[in-house]
Amino acid sequence: MMIGRFHFSLVVLIVAVLSGCASLPPGIDFPKTASSALSHPEETRLGRQFDNTGRQQGGNSGFRIVPVGADGFLIRMQMINAAERTLDLQYFIFRGDKTGQLLTDAVLHAADRGVRVRVLIDDGETVAGDDQITALDAHPAVEIRVFNPFAYRGHTKLFRAMEFMFNASRLDYRMHNKLLVVDNAIALIGGRNIGDQFFQIDPESQFADDDVFAAGPIAQRLSSTFDEYWNSALSIPAEALSGQKSSNAALDELREVLHEHDQQLKTDGIDYVRRVATGELFDRIIFGRLPLIWAHAELVYVKVPLFLRKLVLGIPAQASGKNYAAANASGGPSRPASFVGYPARGIQHHSRNDSTRCRKACIFTTQKALRENTCAIASAD
Fold this sequence. Notes:
Blueprint: H1 2-18, H2 45-56, E1 61-66, H3 69-82, E2 86-91, H4 98-112, E3 116-122, E4 142-147, H5 157-166, H6 168-171, E5 179-182, E6 186-190, E7 211-215, H7 217-230, E8 235-237, H8 238-242, H9 248-267, H10 272-277, H11 282-286, E9 293-295, E10 299-304, E11 308-313, E12 324-328, E13 330-331, E14 339-343, E15 360-362, H12 367-371, E16 377-379
Parallel strand pairs: 2-3, 3-4
Antiparallel strand pairs: 1-7, 1-9, 2-5, 4-8, 5-6, 6-7, 10-11, 11-13, 12-14, 15-16
Helix pairs in contact: 1-5, 3-4, 4-9
């Protein structure tokens, strides 16, 4: 049985390699419907709140840096729980570990409430277990797409490496974006993917990253970038890759797995659900106890060689309470980039995606911010 599976996987890989010259992802001809962000966010509670506040702030947007990994997890859960109409998630990595399952469960509950959910995930770093989220595709309110997928759908590293070697011209185009948008009214953007390593849960390995909570006009601009990726030819429906739509039985099985996972965490004395319910971060932002920094922000595409585009969100350095400016440099679907953060003074390069190289990326805020060195300019090779 194992030999048969090996031979089948080898045949799939050979076909993928031989067809690599076409440089087209599998499922590219699969029918899909274009969609866009919520057109009237002011019809939601969060949309009304930040539309009114944004007007009072002269059309500016509000920002808050979330530097602590555990808070990054909590605010994602709380934002998802607050969704009324739409929920868009775009990530380079979405692990099926503890925090990944908890966030998947929150997304499923949002769909059960009638929230339209779109999930877009890159396929570059997928490992066994990550595909648990694709079972959500059986839910009528959820659609899952995979950005620029490998033809080989298994998780044997050798096979994936071989396919990449023979088709690098396509497979090197990866989507490093990390974006969560709720009701086209608030967004979370930054350097954290979905996984225990990013949320200070894994005791053996942790990544130091930041998130930026954003509200006001900038949220709609971020939604437009999600739409561009979502409707890109490189974003392939999960159904096209599996050969069939996820079944209701698979969704029911996922529900049971997620429920058992939640109960096990409580038994282990780790009640994340209780911590999320306290609203210790999100509610303080929403009710003004943790103030946002309001400033003008521009979302810009910077022309770079090879027709690459780099999308940069500029925020005021004061948003962190420290002298730092941060941004999510998310490229267009033709060549995405990754998160970069720069000290507002003594600018240093801090990109973890060395394969995507640009000549210059500018973070724009206001002229006053520029004079006060809260605008950062990043240069790379």
